[in-house]
Amino acid sequence: MPELLPLFDNGEDGSGNGSSFSGSSKRSGSSSSRSSKRRKATHNLATFKSVIPSLSPPTLDIPRVNVTICRAIVVGTIAFQLPPNESSDYKTHKWYVYVRGMQCEDLSYFVSRVAFSLHGSFNPPIRSIDKPPYEVQEFGWGEFSIGVRIHFKDRSIPPVDTVHMLKLYPPANLKPNPKKPVLSEQYDEIVFNNPPTAFYKLLMDGPQIEPPRHPLTDFFGNFNEIYDLKRIREAQAYVDKELSSVKQKIEEKAIENKLGIVGDVVGDVDVDIHMGDDVVDDDMAEISDMLG
After folding, report:
1. Helix (H) or strand (E) holding 270
2. pLDDT band, very low/low/confident/very high, at 37 (cuts 50, 70, 90)
3. Angstrom distance (rounded) from CA 26 to CA 242
4. Are residues 103 and 245 located together in one domain of the fold?
5. Containing structural domain, residue 214
6. Are residues 141 and 284 in the same domain?
C-alpha cells in the first residue's frame, strides 16, 4: 500500500503554521505557532497605536483584549459495509469523513472551508470543501489517518489542524453488521483568543441559516450534556450490576469450598468411628474364644 502523504504537504495552500488543537479531555485550538505569535505582536502594536491618534487612527479590525470564545465542532467518519454484489477486494465500504456542528448546525458563519488529506492512494489525495456540508465521500477497504484543516472567515486567523482515524470495522468483540454503520466521532472545541472585532461579531451572531436535515443525522452521535450524563449513569449502573454479580459468585464459591472442607472432615470422622467399631468387635471375639 502507498505511504500516507504528509498532511497538506505542497497540496494545500495553508502555511501549516496555524493553531493546533490542544487540551486534555476536550482538545481546543488557539494561536500558538511562531507565525501566530508574530501576528499577535502586530495586533498588540496596532492596539497600542490606536490609543495615540497622532500615530495611527483606530480601526474596526483591532482584536478585542482578554476575550476568549469557544465554538464546538465534531470531526468524524462513518462507514457502511457494501453488499457482496457491490463490493470487491479494494472496495468493501462506502465511507464519509466530515466536520459538523454539535447539533448539525451551520458552521459557515465562521468557517470558510475545510480541507481533508486522504491516503496517497486516492486521487486527488487532498480535498478542499468550501461550503457545507464539509464532508468527503469515498469507497475503500483500509483504515488510515485523515488530516483535517479548518480555515476561518477572517484570514488573519491561522487555520487549525487535527487528525482523525477512519474506522471501517467494529471493535474486535463485535461482529460486522451490514445494517449498522461504523461511527467514529470526536467532539472538539476551537478557542479564539482576542479575535478581531469583525470576526468577533460573526462568532457572537452565530448561524444565520437553517441547513437542511443531513441524511446521516440518525447515525450521528449525540454530544448533548444531558444525554452524556444519562449514558454515564447507565454505564455506572451496568458496572455496579456486573460487580454485584461477580461478588455474589465469589461468595457462593467460597461457601461451596467451606462446605467441601466440612464434608471431608465429617468423612474422616466416620471412617475413624467405623474402624474403631471393627477393632472392638475383634477384641470381643477373641475374649469369647478364650473363655470357651
Report:
1. helix 225-290
2. very low
3. 30
4. no
5. 20-53+60-218
6. no
